[in-house]
Each structure stands twice: as structure tokens, then as C-alpha cells.
Amino acid sequence: MYPVRLAHAVALVVSLFIGALLGAPIRAAVPVQAPPSLETRAHILVDFQTGKVLAESNADMPMEPASITKLMTAYVTFKAVKEGRFKLDEPVTISERAWRSEGSRSFVQVGTQIPLEVLLKGMIVQSGNDATIAVAEKVGGTEQAFAGIMNSYAKQLGMKNSNFENSSGLPGPTHRMSARDIATLAHAMIAEFPEYYRWYALREFEWNGIKQQNRNGLLGRDPSVDGIKTGHTESAGYCLATSAERNGMRLISAVLGTKSMKAREDASAALLNYGYTFYETVALKKKGDVLLSPRVYKGEVEMIPAVVARDVWATVPRGSAASLVTTTSLNEPLIAPLTAAQTIGQVSITDGTNTVATVPLVPQQAVAEGGWWSQLSDTVSLWMR
Hints:
The chain has helices at 2-21, 70-82, 96-99, 116-126, 129-140, 143-156, 179-192, 194-197, 218-221, 261-278, 372-383, and strands spanning 42-47, 53-57, 91-93, 113-115, 204-207, 210-213, 225-233, 237-246, 249-258, 279-285, 290-292, 296-297, 306-308, 312-317, 325-330, 334-335, 345-350, 355-363. It is of the alpha+beta class. The strands form six sheets. The chain has a five-stranded antiparallel β-sheet, sandwiched between helices. The chain has a five-stranded antiparallel β-sheet with strand order 11-13-18-17-15, with no helix packed on it.
């Protein structure tokens, strides 16, 4: 009996050793379960890096977003600052209209001049409608004109189910955003303005001797959460757009129309925990990785390395990344001249059933036309292919 057990043990060790050499996965994939059932009017969970939707319900339904609207107000303003049209230390005069605004306030006083950065932080942390309207009037001239700019950027970002009537999120007959559009906007905010996105993690902000707390309770509950925006009106319910990063994987969630502050936080936390429990986002190829060295006809060189045009990421069930299969294809024959940005093929990543990522292949460098002999001989070679 002992020799048999010893033989089994040796066979197991050898199997594991060979598996490790061949790159076989040592850990099993986590069986993906159904997303949590949530009491929301709409919600979505999206991976930041790949855009893969991990959970959704009524995600394309236009709904009242309340103060999540202020994400777009901030986006428009950050664009204006980045383009050099305004500066963060530029003074903004508080109009009577801004001062008299309804809802949450930053307690700015009519006629005073306050730096744009201070108003932006008041809008982001305190969700002050007065600060928000003052910003909109500064950037757009009037809040109505500013709303037009908001809608223009929404169209550019591909937000198909959103329309803005104002900068603050106060109820309006056609003032709407969908959960998917909110996730799209949150992605743009994080990707384009990381230097300002960090303001969404501020736990409190003080102005005019009044200190107010950030209404996003998840900032205190979950250290991986670093934004992004709350919203509430009686008609919209309690809303929350959230982003978190754990071990290099960032997720974005949007929850609309819950019944309480706790409910929106619990729903958002449930979505995030679901995503991190059952999925992982992995880097499969890096921009510039050489995958093939194909033949080039009529060029000054005969071979050119084909490289990945951009980083390749995939969001897959946790533990299953090692089972992904990479395939490449070329747009043959390749005939010079070729530019460095020209698509000459593609790399596809599959999980055995579905394609999880597809990225173009491009020449490692441009290829110019060859001389007359290369042109002539390769013409003959092409005839004989």
C-alpha cells in the first residue's frame, strides 16, 4: 500500500511541476454568480479599464439624476480650464440668482468674489447649488447657455439618454440621465482629469467658517472608494455614482432611485463587492509587443515586426485568465508603403467561446517603397502567390 501512495504523491508533484512550467493555472476559476438583486430604479456596474458591464438593470432608462448632474458641470469646467479659457485662481462674482438658489448650499454671499477652485470644491464636496450656478454663469455666461454646453459634451461622449436643463440637478421636465450615461461620464472624468478627480475623495470642506461633510458615506465605509457623487431630490430618490480601486482594478457603479442614503450606499457596496469577488481585469499584451514578423512586398525591407497598437486588457471571471487564447491575423499581402499607424492585422483574445478583446496590429515602424528592383521582383512574387 505504501509504494502505491508514494507513486501517487510523486505523480502529483510531477504533474504540478509540469503544469507550472507550461503556465497552467494553479487556482481554479471562481464560479460566477448572478448579480445581486437590488431595490433601485436603475443601476449599472462597469469595469473602468475595459468597459465591460458586470451588472445592470434599466441602465438605459432616462431618469432624474439630481446632483449627479454636477459631474457634467465639473467636466465642462475642467475642460475650460484645461483649454486655458479660465484659471482655478480666477475670481468668480456671486450673482443674486446663484445666492438665492434652492437646495444644498455652500453659503456663498451675493456680490462676493470667490476663486473658481473654491467654488468647484464646494460643488463637489458639499454639492452646493449656489456654488454650482456661480460656476455655470462664469463658464457659460448664463446657466441656460451652460446647459447647452453640457448637452454638447454629452453628445460627444456618447451619452445617448441624457439631457440637461440646468447645472445643479434641480428637477426639470426633460432633465435626465441614464445609469449607463453616468458611468460613461464618470469614466471620462477619471481618465481625462485625474488631477481634479482626487477632489471627489475629500471628506469635508470648509468655507466662510462653515464646515460640511461629503455626503458620500462610502468614503468612510470602504477605503478603496475614492469618489464620486451623490444626488437626492424627493422625485429622484437617493442616487450615487461610485468608483473604487482594489489591487489595480477600478470599477464604476451608478445607482438611481433608492429610498434612503443607507440604501444607496448598500446597493453601491453590493455592486462593487460583487464585481471584485467574481471578476478580475488583467493586462494581456502591452503596446508595442511584437507578435509577428510578416513579409512586406515592394518595400525597402522584406520583413517588419507587427506590434500591438495599444495595451490589451480583459475583464474575465476571477482565476480564468490563464485559459484565455490569443490568435493573430494579418491583412495579407502587405505592400509598401506602410505607415506606422496603419492597421495590418489584429490580435484577438477569446475565452474559448467569446471574444473578450480585439486590438489592431500595426508596423513597428513605417516602411517606405523599395527601389526599382524590389518593385519588379516583388510584383512577380505577388503574381506567383
